[in-house]
Each structure stands twice: as structure tokens, then as C-alpha cells.
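Lab meeting prep.
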Amino acid sequence: MIKQYLKQAFQMLQENRLVTVISIAGTAISIAMIMIVVLVFQIQFASFYPENDRDRMLYVHEGTEVRSSNGWSRGGMSVEAVRECFYSLQLPEAVSAYALGSKPLSVPGKRMYKAYAITYTDPGFWKIFSFRFLAGKPFTQADMDSAIPALVLSASTARKIYGTTDVVGKQVMVDMEEYTICGVVDDVSRAANTAYGDVWIPYTTDLNLMNNSSMENMSGRFSVCMLAKKRIDFNPIKAELKKHIALYNATKQEAEINFLNNPISQFDVAIGSIGQRTVELKDYLAETGGLLLFLLLVPALNLLGVTHSAVQKRRMEMGVRKAFGATKGNLLRQVLYENCLITLLGGFTGLACSFIFLPLCKEFLLKDSDTALHGDMLFQPAVFVVALLFSLLLNLLSAGIPAARIARQPIVSSLKDNDVL
């Protein structure tokens, strides 16, 4: 019976091609808009490689302030401040300090001038972020303590320099310093705002970075990322950090360090509240939710009118079928099967459109137009299923309600094409 209904549905769609095209296009646009909006939120807020635990991460960057009687400095912190305030914390599962830079990489004996994004960090970085190592392993705490010149490369960087990812143990020149490659990781998207990089190096190997400090050795270039064991540990971690800051400040003569509204969560990073007022998720959704809902409902509401009109025009056809013995249930099921088919066709068309439109429009949808969009960002089955069910519900209501009314009408009224009250 279902096979017969689907066969009839295909035939009806072919007979009313204009309405079919409009209905499928409306559903596709609705699905595509929902997918694009949610995917933008996914890239900004949700977890993906290698930031797989974003909901448990806390950041301290771009909001560190050091004051003294001679003035004040805002930006990063020194290695000393990192060690005294963060490495001694007990509540976080892992803590990592990092500083960003850019230098040219070359193979020994061949000078190259292309600069690559370098992250100077520590072994805690590999505990916080879930990098996929294609070869080798990360540098260790022993490497860090001894300032061993080792580094990790991204796969694309390894290919650009050596033409292969099989480079563990080989040498690479970072500017004019020789380093040994200890590992190669899968490429990281720019959307991973903290984990992104081409090269990862122990910060103890860079003397300029280690000695870059001021304001009683408190201000520098470092930021910090912490991984909480549970999200409910955020406030206890902040309280513990506050105590460590007070103890550290007490060791200084005049200078005093303050992290403003830091540490902050991935949500605060995404909406740009770094070093500013703290914005709660409920307040953010209240401010933007109305506009987003409007954008999502416009194509869907337009589709309601088209679908409702198409069903109303079939009143006479349904009256004839009733005259030849069709039951109310048969008529209603036929209409609903047709609209389910339209929704499925429109849904998969909309999914394909979202894959096309998001990369094309990312220049104004995303903060960084160079963001590489990976498969685990673009395809979220749960998002697609919810969007499809949303459109299916609207379609079924717009077609099912008038169809049910027509099915209950007397045959004579349907054949005369009288209006349904």
C-alpha cells in the first residue's frame, strides 16, 4: 500500500510541476538557512578536531593587565606569571601556556622565505587538545625542561617543506635555528582559534620569548588555556586562580597583575567578550534569538501558503475520488505522503545547498575568511534531522489541515468547488 501511495505521489508531483518546484525550493531554502545558521554557531561554539572539549575549556588571553606606579600594560603575561599563577593550580585537569609567532621554515642547506604560523607552547598543550598524530609523537616535559630543539609540524607544512609526511627525525630550520621534527599532526582549521598552527615548538627554546617581560617580570606574550575536569568546576577554578594571583602579587614591590574578566569560556571567546563585560548565554540568545527565528521562518511561512493553496485546488479531484469510494483516511494519507516526499526531496536539496553556500559565503559569515571547513564541522546529522523534522511538521500542518477539512466535506460541496469554512 505504501509503495502504491508513493507511486501515486510521484505521478501527482509530475502533473503539478510548478507547485512541486516551488514547494521543493521552499523546503530546500528553509533547510539550507537552518543548516547554515546552526553550522556557523557550531563552528563558533561547539567542539571539533582538535578542540574536542571546548565545553570544558577556560582561556586567559588578551585581557591580562599589569599596573604599577609607572604605568600599566595590557596584553599577555610573562613565563614567571604563568608558572606562579597557573602551573601550580590543582583543580584543572591540564594547563597550557602558549605564545603565537611567525617565522620562515627551511630545510638545511636550502634557504626558504615563506613564513608559517608558530605556536610556542608546553606539553600540557597536547593534553588539552586532541591532535591526531600521523607520525611520531609530541615533545615531552624532558624536552621542555632541557630546551631541546624539537617541534611538531602539521601535515600540509611537512609536505610543503619535504614533500611527504614521513619526516620524523629530520631537521628543519626555524629562521636560522635548527630543530628536529618529533611528530606530524593532521591539519587544523583556523576555526580552532587556540589550537590552530603550522608548527608547535617548546617555548623554552626561544630565548627572546623567555626574556620578553616587563613590569617587574609580570607582563609578556603568553596566554593560557585550562581544561576543567567538569564544566561545573569553572567557578572553583576561578576562585583558586584568584588566590594564586593574590599570593603572586604579594611578592612584588609595586606591580600588580589582574586578568580582568578572565578566565573565560569558549562562548565568551566566540561572541567577543574578551576583557569586557561577561555575557550570559541566556542573554545572548534573548538578544539574537528573535532575529534568527525570523530568518528561519520566512521561507517556511511562504511555503505554508503555497502548500495550502495547492491542496485547496484539489478539492474537486478529492470529491470525485470520494464519489468512487475513497475513504477520508485514503485521501488524507495520499496528501500527506506527497508532502513527505516533497519534504525529503527539499531537505536533501537544502543540505547540498548548505554545503555549497557556507564555503562561498564564509567571508561575511565567519570572522576569518581563511577558515578551512572540515567534514566534522559541515555535516552534523542531528542538526539536519531536526531541521528536516521542523520542515516536515510545517508541511504536514499546511497540507494536512485543509486536506482533513476537504475530506470531511460532503461530496456535492467538493464537486461544486465550494470554499471550505
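Slide two material, second protein:
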Amino acid sequence: MQAGYNKLNITPKEAVRIAGYNRKELSKGVLDPIEINSLVIKENKQTIIISILDSIIIEDSVILPVKQAIFEKYGIPFEQIIIGCIHTHSAPAYFKPFFEDVYIDTELQNSLIDSFVESISLSMNSLKESYLTMEKTEIEGLYGNRNNKNGIVDKSVHVIHFMNSHSKKDICSFIQISCHPTILNGSNLKLSSDLLGWIRQKYQKKTNVPCMIVNGYCGDVSTRFYRELKGEDELERVSSSIINQMNHLHTLETNTEGLKSTTFEKKYSYNGQTDSFVQSEIPHLKEVITQSNDTSKLAMSKMLLHNLEFKASKGEMILNLYSHIIKLGNILFISLPGDITAALGQRIVNAFKNYHVIIIGYCENYSNYFVCNEDYGKYFETYISRLSKGNADDFIQNVIDQTRVLLK
């Protein structure tokens, strides 16, 4: 096996607009770097690329030109290139989130294409004979299911160490965690990769090894019930506490015999004008707004109503959902295109108990929230989903079925 890695600092030097929380102001300074981190894994003639941006979302306007450029340069098919983001709400507005009204600087967005190609190319050029080790721990008392404190959540943190086979020195560390990086709220105007970026920085400093980080199935997971401080102070507290708990990582048994990959792709149609939940909930919310004197309830109801009416105003939408599935020995990397709630992510993990499953969320063209049948309509996530009831379950089951085919 060979591995190559690159970390590229792409922090804008000028003030820019920020995607997240519908902020109108330009950024005012930088709290921590905005990066692209790229990992290449190669075995025999098979090459897999994982390239992750510090951004709230990522879309085909950048993904497809990057994949085309890499295909032309190295002959690597689109299906073997995973491009995603960490979902920070404090990075530049490279893309316009569906429910936000933020100006996108096309020049800034286009600059991402060259940056991705540069980072991936540098990773390709740094390929070295390698091996890996893998560790895991559970994080307690810092984040959980944000709708139900005792609800489903993935509190595991996986760390994969890629090592140079000859020098025995680290090439990079690869961290996977499942938590919304939303400690910084809409009042923050400093560019930041938020919680995941701070974990990445602190782990790099602790180990003196370059590090990348990916987000898993955290659609309904955050620090909501565990907050003690605010802003940067809380960011420091939570990130430091996670790093401290990562002192208790335990080694997992791994093998890397055989690198195989496949993909699953399916289109789903959504129309808010005919969606039964949207059409029944709009009049209900209007009634709540008319009758309620509770200020916080009014504000929430107005926001939810706006989201539903906005979805309805768009008419029919086609979402093309895409998943990469990679088998590296007894490790499975599975990418998913949006905010995957914990119940759905857990279905995938539970289906492959003989494997170490690394789910990478926020990959490919961002498609908002994936909510399972049993939770559909109960919580906030449904109001900003662009999938009809049952679509998320169908997609996840198809990913599981396609993974089983790969493992045969």
C-alpha cells in the first residue's frame, strides 16, 4: 500500500462573506486557518482520493471540474475521488446554502478548483510505501443527540495513522468524529473551521504529525445539552476536553489486504407543493403564530414556517444522491451527501459489525438533511430536508445493499 498526504492553507487574505447563520456582514479577522486536506491511498492499480474542505457545504460546481482535472492528469475515475467538507458554519461563503441568502463571490468559488487540484496533486506526488494503525475511543459529556439527550448518537472517535514503511515515521493522521461543528454562533465574524478544525490543530500540536479530520453522521448531534461557556471560550473548552479524552485511544485490529471500491447513485424527486408534511404543517404553524404569546416559540415557529414556504415555492426539485464505498482490508470508508441523522448512520455501522466503518458525511453535492421514517416530522431536521418521507431510508438501505455486493 502507498499513501500520500497534503495540507493546503487557503485562508482568504481579504474580508469575505461567511456561509452559515445567514450573516450579512463580512468577516473580521481569522480565528484559525481554512484548509483543504487531501489523502491518497494506492494499492496495485487502484487509487482512492479523499479531499476535504473547511466549508459548510460543497457542490458540483467545484466537485465536477476538480474530478475532471484529476482524471485528465492522472487517469483516476470520478468514482474513486471523494470530495467533501467538515460543515463549519464560519468558513468563507464558497457556496450558497439552500435556506440562506448569502452572496457568493464566484471568483472565490472558482479559486477552490485550482486549490483542490493543487492539494490532490501534491498528495499524489508524495506517495510513499506505507502501512496504517487504527485507534478508537468514546467521548463522554461533551456532545450528544440534540433532540433527545438520551437519543441515538455516535460518540466514537477513530484515528488512523498512516506510516512510512521504510522510515517508520508518520505520514499523517486521519480523524473521524460525528458532531455538528457549531460552537461558534452567528455573532462570530472571524473565519474558523470551528470545533473540528480546533481538534485537528490541537491533535497536530500534540503529536507533531500533520492531521486531517472528517465529519460523520451528525445530522442531529451537537453540543446543545452540554454547553457551559460561549464562543471562543467554549470552543477552547470542548476541543481541549476531546483531545484529553483522546489520551485513552485503544488500538484496533486491522488489515489492509485488498483495496476495492464501488458507488451508489440514485435520483429522488421532491416537491414541497405536494408534500403532505409541508402542506399540513404550514397552516398549523400559522395558527401557532397567531395564538402564541411565547416569544421563543414564536421565533422558532416563524423560522420553521419560512423554511416550509420556501421549499414549497421551489416546486419540483431533483436530488442526485451519491455514495462512495471503499473497502481497505477490514476498514470501510462510506461517503454520504449531507446531514445524516444518527439513526440512519447507525444502520450502516450495525450492518457491518465485522468491519471498522468510517462514515464521511458532507460529501459530493450537498443535499441537506436525511431523516429516518420514525423521526420524520418530529424535529427541526425535517423542516430543512429536501427528501420526502421514506427517501432517506431507501437511500441508506441501497448503500448498505451496494456495500454487501462489494464485500462478496
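Talking points for slide two:
The mean pLDDT is 97.
The CA atoms of residues 370 and 392 lie 5 Å apart.
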